[in-house]
Amino acid sequence: MPTQPRLTDLIPQLPLKLKAAKVVEGYITGIHSSPFRGFSAEFEQYRTYQHGDDLRYFDWKVWAKNEKKVIRQYSEETNLRCSIVLDCSSSMGFPEEHPSKWEFARVLAASLIHLLIRQRDAAGLIAVSDEVVLHRVPRGVSWYESDLFNQLEKLSQNSKTKLNTGLELAASIHSRRGLVIVISDFMQDMDEWMSGFRLLSSQKNDIIALQILHDRELSLKAVTDVLLEDSETGDRLETNFQQIRQSYSTAVTKWQSDLTTFFRNNGIQFLSAKTSEPFAVVLKEVLQNRAGKR
User: Fold this and answer.
1) Cα angle 115-118-122, degrees, rounded to a multiple of 5
2) Which of 52, 122, 143, 163 lies 20 to 30 A from 169 at CA?
3) Domains of the chain by range and CATH?
4) pTM value?
5) Are 113 and 182 in contact (CB under 8 A)?
């Protein structure tokens, strides 16, 4: 049985395509149904039953009530169109050593693309830092996967975050209902990206906000008291580590609570993942949450 790899299990120099294939292989073992599906077919109208019609659509309740033989007709189920909005700002490069949030986010984005295109759904990619640095519209053809992987390989994290520019671009692509997965640490001021999420939500898109964090960002590593010195003025400040750790913990808790509240109030699925988690666990949470919302 294939293992469920963590980022530390994947050789850093391994091509992104092979990393994604290994992650997906570890996830789909034992999964027999499609992990992503298009938007569910909706009931459209009744019509009179004719000999040879598929009895799966025969409405037995109507027949039992007034003995009318009718077939339920549905609007056609649509293929899924998904855009992945990837935050490639400087904060995603933490920590500098392997494994970083950026490495985790890229492999996760590649794995989602691989899952989508292997079942002939359409996948697209928007990478954003202080501007949109990459834009590929959703397509479902097999050669497109290699193109997206090549673009992901070339990307690097840099500059500040202006996530809203990527969200607004996704909204222009998905004026008709689609799926938008936003992969970020969400360390930018919430006020600077809330409008983009609200716009996507108003268009009836399914949205998944997927936060990537490192363990060291959730709690401070124990150290002794530190003497800080301003490199320009020479001013010094003595710090009490216990007080700083408590203040930091309180701030992190409030930050996560504010994110959870905003996304819940706007009908957006919010998931927070750590880089130490197996990819299969994260993929399972993403797909189960979407299945539960359909």
Assistant:
1) 80
2) 143
3) 7-28+79-293 (3.40.50.410), 43-74 (no CATH)
4) 0.78
5) no
